[in-house]
Amino acid sequence: MEVVPARARAYVACAVLGALCCVLPLPETHTPWWAVALLAAVYAGCEQAAARWRFAGTFYPVLLAGAFLLPPPAAALVPLPGALLSRVEQRPYALRRIWRAAQLVLAVWAAGRVHWALGGRDAVVGSDFPYALVPAGAAVLVFCLVLTVLDGGILALAERVPVRRAWRGLFVRSLAPVAVHGLAGLMMAVLWRSPYGPVAALLVLLPMCVSWWVFAQYHRERAAHQATIRALVQAVDIKDGYTRGHSERVGQASMMIARELGMDDQRVEVLRFAGILHDVGKLGVPTRLLRKDGPLTPEERRVIELHPEYGHEMVRGIGFLGEARAAVLHHHERLDGSGYPYGLMGSQIPESARVVAVADAFDAMTSTRSYRRARPVAAALEELERCAGAQFDPRMVTALVRALGHQGWHPAVTADEERERGREREQGEGQGLGHEREVPAPSAVGRSGVRR
């Protein structure tokens, strides 16, 4: 977003004008300005702590407590200092801060209006439970809806995300965490209006801050693992330059298959990692074999066929990968038992490995290599369907066909085209399904035993 399109700037300007309309005219004179200042200072402090912990997120309980306690225009002022002083990772810094401030002002104002319209202020003051949950719940829904609508719009305009994808799943993914923050905000508001006063209300934040810090630590650890994965993939790309970018595309295709099969988001992410890391074992294969121009000898083939085991050893200590480790080990197994390294058959092959096998073969066929040009997507899918049941799981092939029908595929050239034009390969070499410079066991596909 360093170069922000004009339409995105106009969108931000409209949000800023809307935010100004929310806070102007200023709230009535009986507004407890000390409460506005205290909540704004607490929220700004939480934002600074989040920046120090490098946690991506916003501490919504303070904002929602403001919506439950204050008149809507006053509540809309609470996020301003924290948003305008927040840490921003990317340029343009000022525009991002202004956008975030306007977004939060609009969301808090809308939540406050709904809460007050439903009699939430009287319910909070009188601790009228369970009725107090009704206006608070409605306010949380509106707060989440405004945020997701604005987020989707900026994604579509600034990041050029297709409109149909910009809002997909945003509200559902955001609702649960915002609802939890809303309950904490309601607890703060009730205690604030109780004889215990604001000090007791602020104590509600302590357990929330601890859990937030633990969650931040988890994300930091996960980010470290992902950085390790990226480093491994980059090392593979450097070692075998002919297949640069292949791992990321296999991860993308694996994710498409998993989603089409109806897997939950966590498992989809694991299978994406499986696709990205499936060839990491190549780091244990001599570079001269990966880059050899001529046919491989039987001994050289046996060395290359060890790469799934090498890869499994490399990733076995990364705990969050889960079943991705099995995919790294078994993605060259075949349903008829002719694959490697263990010759597993049918359901003996882990489901994750069957997903990655299809994704791997598809990208290998639709990407240009030094020894052959890319096949059209339709031809690659036809070959996958021909080999379904013998080499590939038919369910995975069907899922990929359906996913590509919805989303399409745009394969990239991964070979060094200058070297490609300077070489001529034997006719028929690389005609079967396969995976770069790897040799599958003899089957209906690739009986000639040539490298792919």
TrEMBL record:
The keyword Manganese does not apply. It comes from Streptomyces cylindrosporus. InterPro entries: Cyclic_di-GMP/3'3'-cGAMP_PDE, HD/PDEase_dom, HD_domain, HD_GYP_dom, HDIG_dom. The chain crosses the membrane at residues 6-26, 59-86, 98-118, 138-158, 170-192, 198-216. This is HD-GYP domain-containing protein. Keywords: Membrane, Transmembrane, Transmembrane helix. Residues 411-452 are annotated as: Disordered. Residues 221-416 form the HD-GYP domain. Residues 416-439 have a biased composition (Basic and acidic residues). Gene3D superfamilies: Hypothetical protein af1432. CDD domains: HDc. PANTHER family: CYCLIC DI-GMP PHOSPHODIESTERASE TM_0186-RELATED (PTHR45228), LIPOPROTEIN (PTHR45228:SF4). Residues 243-365 form the HD domain.
